[in-house]
Amino acid sequence: EMCIRDRYQRRVRECGFGMMQCQILVALLAGLALATLPVRKDFESGESFRIECQTGDENQPWGPGPVCDETGKEISFQYGQDNFFYCGLRVKDQAHFAWLGSLVQQERNWNCRAPLSPERKFFLPFTIPLWGVLEKDHMHVDNHFNFIFHGDSGRIIGAAAYPLRDRFQYAKVNSVVNFHGPVRWFHRHSFTPMSNVKAPASLQTQTSSKELIVWCCGSVLLTLVSAVFVYQFVCKPALKEKYRKKE
Description:
By secondary structure, the chain is of the alpha+beta class. α1 runs antiparallel to α4.
């Protein structure tokens, strides 16, 4: 009887160990699958993105675009969506004032770039030109800008920014220039608004990476719960019944 009981306990432990190995293997495979998920190559409609601008630093030549004083964050845009932007640029110190003055005098360029896709491997160059009049301790800056983008199947294929004559705002050190204006998106190489073009079916049914990760994690969790359930209520009782009969 002792021999039968020992053999039964050993078989139960072996079965339990096998189930544990199976669960670990499933978890590892799921983790590997999540780690190898490809980075999305296309923007979704309405997806936010930021631009980058030159910093003048040789060690880090590209940095954030204009930082808006009211939010403390970089200016951002939404792929394929026309809207109106507002961004207050604070003149931080004398060095910043001198740099803005050089832009107004067209002695330097405010070189920026927009990402072609979410991968941020390739960028489209454009400049933000400041129009104004520089005085000794202040300047008058036109604060109205148009931002223009061209999109094609989830990719940004063109970008531009230019001032329009509106109001010339007085600016000096520690003041804020209230840049504002419309953002417009055009379809491919035309001037047809993207809002007038129906999105391809592939973009309408595209699943985001976050949704895919949630789906994968849910599948792994469901598999593990199912495995534990089968072992606890099917495998284990069957083993008990089998060895009870032998006893």
